[in-house]
Amino acid sequence: MTLILSLTPEIEQYLTQRARQQGLSTEAYTLQLLREHIRLNEKQAKSIDLLQSWMDEEDAAEQQETGEYLIQALDKNRSIDRQLFPIELKGVSW
Fold it and tell me: What does the alpha-carbon distance between residue 19 and residue 17 come to, in Å, rounded to a whole number?
């Protein structure tokens, strides 16, 4: 497929400079950017789907237990005494 885009001078200059730095034509560099963007979006969509499937499992007790375990694990064995999740801020900031 052929796609014709009208770019601002700033975008064109940016693409041209970056392409030169990588030893590519502007077209090849732009196509590379598009491919990378699409791959990243696909990875993000898969991650979101996985997280959503975990949330949809409807085991609130297990999720609560896991969350509390993670909070304790993050606060345990810190090199400083300040907790990441102080109990007095539960429901306020976390």
Answer: 5
